[in-house]
Write a structure and sequence with these properties.
six-stranded mixed sheet; 10 strands; globular; binds adenosine-5'-diphosphate
Length: about 230
């Protein structure tokens, strides 16, 4: 599903963010990416949806070679990979329904089909009753669930979440975990960068720890392993 072979990333300013990573993640896995700030977690994740390109090495996702991918093929890749951010990144002038529908890049689909698909994902994140609301009328946790619905509306093989609970209180963070687990149970591979020690130590899944741009730990049912 996701394969990285001898991947290195040096930013144009000379910062060596990733220093030789080999990793393989299978279909349907749930993986936490942990490590101190500045360790390279975001860079590791950004390379998977081609926000950043490795300086050296190979990355395959679902058979697609990201390192040779042409710019015009990136939209196709983005349909296979949903992404969720710490700060939600919703469009505030659009309703919940419109935010999710906007991501559905199927021009040829009829409004009826789009409506069905959008309502189906809003049902998964338990927000069907708020489809007509604006993001500003929702709680932080609800806004993050809209962002998750948007990320999965194209039915991607992989859902990537970069600190999805970073801006949320503990109770709301657990709700987000319920949603991510539900999506994982439906067969989507989930990759989540996090600093949330309690979540990682409670919902035990594979843990990949990154320090100084290298994988220093990779455990099947790992723990967080850091004090904060
Ligand atoms: P983390 O997500 O673990 O905090 P990052 O991947 O964001 O780590 O950063 C890894 C290193 O690369 C840090 O030293 C950071 O300052 C640097 N870095 C991140 N993005 C850029 C960039 N666009 N240009 C230059 N350096 C960067």
């Amino acid at each position: 599903m996701i394969d990285m072979k001898d991947v290195w990333k040096t930013y144009p300013n000379g910062m060596k963010a990733i220093n030789g990573i080999d990793i393989s993640i299978g279909k349907g896995e749930f993986v936490y990416v942990v490590g101190p700030s500045g360790a390279g977690k975001s860079t590791f994740i950004k390379m998977m949806y081609r926000e950043e390109k490795p300086t050296k090495g190979k990355i395959h996702i679902n058979g697609t070679d990201l390192t040779t991918l042409k710019e015009k093929q990136i939209p196709y890749l983005r349909r296979q990979i949903g992404v969720v951010f710490q700060d939600f990144k919703l469009l505030h002038q659009l309703t919940v329904f419109e935010n999710v529908a906007f991501a559905l890049e199927v021009i040829e689909e009829s409004p009826a089909v789009i409506k069905k698909r959008v309502m189906a994902v809003l049902d998964i994140v338990k927000l069907k009753n708020k489809a007509r609301f604006l993001p500003g009328e929702l709680s932080g946790g609800e806004q993050q669930r809209v962002a998750i619905a948007r990320a999965i509306v194209n039915n991607p093989a992989v859902l990537i979440a970069d600190e999805p609970t970073g801006n949320l209180d503990p109770d709301t963070s657990w709700e987000i975990m319920d949603t991510l687990e539900e999506i994982n149970n439906r067969g989507t591979t989930v990759l989540m960068a996090t600093h949330n020690k309690e979540i990682v130590n409670t919902i035990r899944r594979r843990v990949i720890a990154i320090e100084d741009g290298r994988v220093v730990r990779d455990e099947v049912r790992g723990n967080y392993g850091y004090e904060i």
